Amino acid sequence: MKTTGLLIPAFSTRRNGDLGIGDTLGMRDWVDWAAEFKVGFLQLLPINENGTDESPYSGISSTALDPIYLSFDPPEIPYLSQIDLEAARTSLGPHLTSHLIEYPAVRAAKLRLLEIAFARFEAESDDLLTGELDSFKKQNVSWLPDYCLFKLLIELNGEDLTWDQWPEESRTPESARKLVRRMREDDPQSVDTRIRFFAFIQWLCFRQWRALRAHADFQNVKLMGDVPIGISFHSADVFFHRSIFHVNWFAGTPPEGYSSDNPFIHEWGQNWGVPVYDWEALTQSGFAWWRARIAHITEIFRIFRIDHVLGFYRIYAFPWHPRK
Question: Measured between alpha carbons, how far is 153 from 113 in angstroms, rounded to an integer?
């Protein structure tokens, strides 16, 4: 059976009322359009939380979703009002309608709204929503605590440094957990509040994307995901699971003689800064990390592609990180 699809990055699904970038409500409009015109699937770029270069292929987690695609229209985010939304829109000024996405401004505006929503959530303690969040935490215990700790470490050490450049006390999972234990002894409320905040954001992300998946299924439109073969060096996955990666070898492409406009690529090739897998270690675990990665993405997407699937069989690698 043949079908027709459309590739549409989530950031491009602009709509009246958004906050300077496409969001889940914008995607819902596209699902409805696809259903009306018998388009079988909508393919997205990766929606995992981006790194600082804002590339969809530089996610800091193979599972965590990027809150930049959240919709904030009431009642999409509990405890936010139309007044809160309009204040955020005003704060964005010209960035709200810019033809180019002003990522720093958009992220800052959405983060402020999330901070407001979280503070009210913690203060008002709705039993139904609290139970929903607690259930989400239990269902995602295999990755969520590590991700939240990684986000806390990024806050402590700055977004511009990769984990191998962090202070010694933050550079390994063991030392980082000791650091956080010491911090809890001094100020347990602040540490635990930030950890809960990061979990709260992911709950909202999965809540909206699962709702979008349900709407797409109802409309008989398949959402198609994109799974990069690798994961960013500066990610919670590599930080906590380095035994399944060769952290000193980085995937890329061989020299390309036709790229005469880029001397480095002409002579050396492309170095993506993505650590290659230790396939022996993955085999010994029964490919547990890959199984979990695919299981999580199929919560949202009916179908998916693996970007650079040839990497399962062969990969070109460099013995240095591109920033070094």
Answer: 22
